[in-house]
Write a structure and sequence with these properties.
73% of the residues lie in helices and 4% in strands. By secondary structure, the chain is mostly helical. Strands 1-2-3 form a three-stranded antiparallel beta sheet.
Length: 301
């Protein structure tokens, strides 16, 4: 490895190792005490994101060490970036789409919700963009035997326009129910649902900033970026996105006492007064309120 590349490569390796450790911790926290056979769709997306991010950072750490003077490793780097990075972005978009469904249409099934079907349909162009990225990939060794990878301007511009459009669209879908006075988020019993919407709104904005910054880097280098820098920026992107999703799906600190108290009340089946009190409260709740409560609980730790 050329001497002048030692420092960036070492930094990239350290970041990858930290990212691998962090993904392992988040995966453990999310699956601790959970029966893997009973994981719902939303939690499955989060766990899949951890696994894809872990896989990407692990392979990126290996390729950072083997890229200099190795055309096979250099070519593999761009395909890893295109496949695993694209997989992580699709999982994040599916997660955000699911959150839009939770905060807007939880009283209907997914297949019967027009907005949900439209959002899923908006993901189909990503397959075309992925093919475009593969056809316009860059993986070469320069005169110093340094691996240079990236995307040609056509693919990178299309990618950034698509990312900005989808992220902005999903952000608007979170802002709309928060601003509307007639949405399912309004009412004294919808505190948790509003919290889900606010957190996911922040998460979608962060995802937009990270994606835009990463692709703008490719545009700045005109598609010919040092593989160490490219793998480092992609590692930071997928890791920070995974951390953001973990935060979005975690309970707010202030909600723990209430949640613990409610679980404690539920578990005290031998207390007749408590049971009768819970039954009377359930009668006051509408079916949609009950459905919302169950749905929100499935999205948090």
């Amino acid at each position: 490895m050329p001497q002048h590349q030692d420092v960036p490569a070492i930094i990239s390796l350290l970041v990858s190792l930290l990212a691998i450790s962090l993904m392992s911790v988040l995966f453990g926290r999310k699956t601790s005490g959970t029966n893997m056979s009973s994981i719902n769709y939303a939690r499955g997306l989060v766990i899949s994101l951890y696994m894809v991010s872990w896989g990407f950072t692990t392979i990126a750490a290996i390729l950072t060490s083997t890229n200099p003077g190795n055309m096979t490793s250099c070519t593999l780097s761009i395909f890893v970036c295109l496949s695993l990075y694209a997989a992580s972005k699709i999982i994040i978009y599916l997660f955000l789409i699911e959150k839009v469904y939770v905060v807007s249409s939880v009283t209907t099934t997914r297949k019967d919700t027009l907005l949900y079907r439209i959002n899923i349909l908006l993901l189909t162009p990503y397959t075309v963009i992925l093919v475009l990225m593969i056809l316009n990939r860059v993986a070469v060794l320069n005169e110093k035997d340094e691996c240079v990878i990236g995307l040609k301007p056509l693919a990178s511009i299309v990618l950034i326009l698509y990312d900005i459009f989808v992220s902005c669209w999903l952000t608007v879908l979170f802002i709309r129910p928060l601003m509307s006075t007639t949405s399912v988020l309004q009412g004294p019993s919808k505190g948790k649902l509003r919290q889900v919407a606010r957190r996911t709104l922040i998460g979608s904005i962060i995802a937009l900033i990270l994606s835009s910054g990463n692709v703008f880097t490719l545009v700045y280098y005109r598609g010919y970026e040092d593989s160490v820098l490219c793998l480092l920026s992609c590692t930071l992107d997928v890791t920070l996105n995974a951390v953001t999703v973990h935060w979005v799906t975690s309970r707010a600190r202030g909600s723990h006492p209430t949640d613990k108290a409610s679980r404690g009340v539920t578990n005290q089946n031998n207390n007749n007064n408590t049971t009768n009190h819970n039954m009377s409260n359930e009668k006051k709740m509408s079916p949609s309120d009950t459905h919302i409560s169950v749905t929100v609980e499935s999205y948090t730790d």
